[in-house]
Amino acid sequence: MQFAYTIVYVSDVDASLDFFARAFGLKQRFLHESGEYGELETGTTTLAFAAHSIARANLGADYVAADASPDPLGVEIGLVTDDVARACQQAVEAGATLLTEPAVKPWGQTVAYLRCPDGTLVELCTAAPSR
Predict the structure, then answer these.
(1) Model pLDDT for residues 39-97, shown as the tens digit of each residue
(2) Domain coordinates in residue numbering, the chain
(3) Kind and range of the H or E element at 18?
(4) Which residue among 62, 67, 73, 114 is buried most deeply as judged by most CB within 10 Å?
(5) What is the pLDDT of residue 129?
């Protein structure tokens, strides 16, 4: 097995792609002509966004949409940066809600948590020290 992609189901795919570009500097790789599916340039693992209607059709049922939940869902997108504080400031200026200030963990990694306008939970962190 190889981890290939994460799809975040959102109300507005284009708005999520735009937010991730402004907040985190991730460029759009693809947006389907329907506007219901798009991908970001993130390296070998794809970060994609799809409309709630696609999720419901794929699942054959409803689910908890991240933007409808008052609390963040129990899954996060982790983004590595050299400057967590600066990245947090940029994301907040783009519309994210800061959940936890940058803090150095006992293992030496700096970590902060944000919630995006589409409800997605994002961890911004420095690279984990070598094990």
Answers:
(1) 999 988 999 999 999 999 999 999 999 999 999 999 999 999 999 999 999 999 999 99
(2) 5-125
(3) helix 13-24
(4) 114
(5) 84
pTM of the predicted protein model: 0.93
The SS3 assignment for 47 reads strand
CATH topology assigned to domain 5-125: 2,3-Dihydroxybiphenyl 1,2-Dioxygenase; domain 1 (3.10.180)
Cα–Cα distance measured from residue 58 to residue 36, given in angstroms and rounded to the nearest whole number: 13
The C-alpha atoms of residue 123 and residue 113 are separated, in whole angstroms, by 5
Residue that is written with structure tokens 């996060």 in the block: 76
Average per-residue pLDDT in the chain? 95
Tell me which residue of 42, 49, 48, 50 sits closest to 26, measured CA to CA: 42
- What SS3 state is found at 84? helix
